[in-house]
Amino acid sequence: KLNKYTLIPREDTEILVQEAINIGKTKILDMCTGSGCIAISLAKYILDAEVDAVDISKDALEVAKDNNELNHTNVNFINSNLFENVETRYELIVSNPPYIPKRDIEDLQIEVKNEPMLALNGGDDGLDFYRIIIETAKEYLTEKGILMFEIGYSQAEDVSKLFYDNRYNNINVVKDFGGNDRVVFAERGE
User: Left, alpha or beta for 16 (phi > 0: left; psi -120 to 50: alpha)?
Assistant: First the structure.
């Protein structure tokens, strides 16, 4: 289910989900969950997964909770402005945060412009949420925990640099079905 408060999932998000499944961690946080499609998929396909999902929008979380019930999964939902109400550590944090540069939103296809602005606007350069999450996630990752993002097709270098500058290890970039960079992930460092 979707509504005006949730982003319509795109097939590129499957790359993030598949990479997370391949890593096989079981204590997982989905940051900026929206409709819950990532969290619910991970709860469904990773045996014994314990999945928490965070969103700032109470309206989006209501949809995510309905989707959780429809899919017979047991995701725990947290209404929070990023990590504000998060109280535990995770082996894996995944996120498909807002990543469209503010100046580019007006030029988007009409069907994308109809998406909730809260789910699109990544700030002036599209990297605001990556900066905040990368800097803060270390407090919420276990030793050797992984932070994984879906990214815009031109953001791999910038997001990788943010990981590097924040002393994460083993930075990886994964391409989507169209050959574009789509997922960046790294291991918590010092």
Answer: alpha
